[in-house]
Amino acid sequence: SFTIHCKSGAKRRYITRHLQAALLVIISFRSLAPSHCRYVFNTLFKHRPDARFTEPHNHRKRHCLIRIGNLGNIYFFVNPTPPLSLSFSFPNPVMVRCLPFFISLAAATNLYATHYDGNIYSLSLDDENSLSVTSSLKSCGDGPSWLTFDSSTRTMYCSDHAGNASMNGLLTSYSVDRNGRLTELAHTVDVGAAVHSVIYGGKHGREKYLAVAHYGGSALSTFALPLRSDKKPLEVFRYKMSQPGIKPRQDSPHPHQVILDPTGGFILVPDLGADQVRVYAIDLHSGHLNVCPSLNYTAGSGPRHGLFWKSNPSDSVTMLYTVSELSGHFHAFVVSYLSSGCLAFKETQSFVPYPGGKLPAAGTPAELRMAGNSLYASIRFDQGFAPNDSMSTMACSSNGTVSFSQITSAYGTIPRTFAINKKGTLVAIGDQASSNVAIVKRDPRGGTLGDLVANLQVGQPGQASNSSSGLSSIIWEEDVEFVEQSSHACVSAICMFACLLFAICWFVCYRLSIV
C-alpha cells in the first residue's frame, strides 16, 4: 500500500489525466519499489523534457518522486499498513473526492486451489501473466475438496473430502485479506466426503446459508451463516437406494454438486449414483429446503454437474444444462416454474460433446461452466492432446439450443475443475493428476479458448488411479456463488442509478473547474 501526494499548479487537467494512468500502473505491483516508480516515469512522463525522476530516502520511509516542471510533484511512498490511502492537493475538493470512484485499479489477481495433500494454496496472477504460489495453509481436514467464496463478506468456505456416510468430515470458514492470505474463522463437523457447496439466501437476501453435497456421504447438508465452531447443520438429507444402479460406481447415491437456480428459490443436486437430479424449493423465511419431484435420467447416465441459463434476465425461457459422467452425454432441458411451487423439466437435447459425437473408451466429462453464449466441459482420461486431456467448447444459440464447437488442450491430465474469470478473458484449469493450474486465454466475443499464458505446478502430482490425490479445485477470488433475492436486486439497481447520476455531477464539476 502507498500514499500519493500530488501538488499541481493551474494546469490540473494534465496531472489528472496522467495521475489516473500512474495509478493504473503502480497498483498493478504487489509491493512498491523505486524500480516500479521508474517504470511509471518511463511509461508516462519521459517524453516531457521538464520531467525528472529522483529516489530520495530517509530513515523513516522510502519514497520516490516524479517532478513535472511547474505542474507539480507526484510522490510514491511505501506505507506498511493497508488500506490504500490517496490524498491530492487539487483546489477543487469535489473533483478530488470523486476521482477514486472513476479510476479502475489494476492489481494482481488472487486464485485459490485445494489439494488432497491437505493444503489450500493461495496463488497470484500478475499483469504480466506470471503465476505463483504466495502461501499455503494446512487446514480444512485431511482432504480439502472444494472452495466457495462470498465476496460480500470476503469469507471462504472449504469442504473436506475425508469421511463417508458413517464417518464425518469438516467444514471450515476463513477470512480473506487483500493479499490473498487466509485466516481460519471457524470449523465444524459435517457429513463426510463433501465435494461441492453453494451459498443461497433467505428472505429478502438478508440471511445466508450454505448447502453442501457429499458424494461419499450420500447426503446434502445445509448450514446457517456465518459459520461458527461446532455449529450443527441446519438440515441433513440422507439418501438411500432400493438397489444399486447398473454401473459399478452406482452402488449408492452420490450427490456431486449443488446448483442454485437464477431466481435463488431452488436448489438442484445432481446424483451420479441414483441417476437423477434432486430438486428442492427454498423456504425464504427459514432457509429450510422443501423436497420437490426429481428429474430422472436414463439408467447408467450418472449426472455429475450442471448449470442454468437465460438469454437475458427478462426472458421467460430458462434452460438447465447438465453433463453425465458415466454416459458421457450433455443434456438440455427447458425449465418451467409451476404454481405448485416446484419445477418441471422437458428434455430438448442429448449428445456427446466431443468430435464425432463419441468419447474415447475411458473419456468422461467432469465439470460444466458457461460464459457468454459458450459452454465448456472438461474431459478427463481422453488424452486428446496426449499426454494431456481436453476441454470441450459448445455454442449456445439465442433459443437455448447448444452445438459442439471444438476441443482444446487442458494442458494437464484429469481436468477435474476449472473456472472462468469475470471478464471472460481467462480460464483457470485445475488438472488433478498432473496437479497443475493452467491459465488459458479466452476470446470474450467468440468464446474460443486460446493460448496458454501461465502454468504452475501446485503441490505434488496425483495418481490417475487414485481419485483422492492431486489437485481438487480452483477458484478465482472474484467468484461469487450467491444469488440475491429480488429485493436486493432492486437495491442494486438503485445504487447503480445513483452512481450514474453521481458520475454526471462529477463530470459537470470537473468541466467547470478547468474553465
Automatic annotation (TrEMBL):
Spans traversing the lipid bilayer: 491-510
GO MF entries: 6-phosphogluconolactonase activity
Keywords: Membrane, Transmembrane, Transmembrane helix
Keyword Transmembrane helix (UniProt): yes
Family designation: Belongs to the cycloisomerase 2 family.
UniProt cross-references to PANTHER family, sorted A to Z: 6-PHOSPHOGLUCONOLACTONASE, 6-PHOSPHOGLUCONOLACTONASE-RELATED
Record's protein name: 6-phosphogluconolactonase
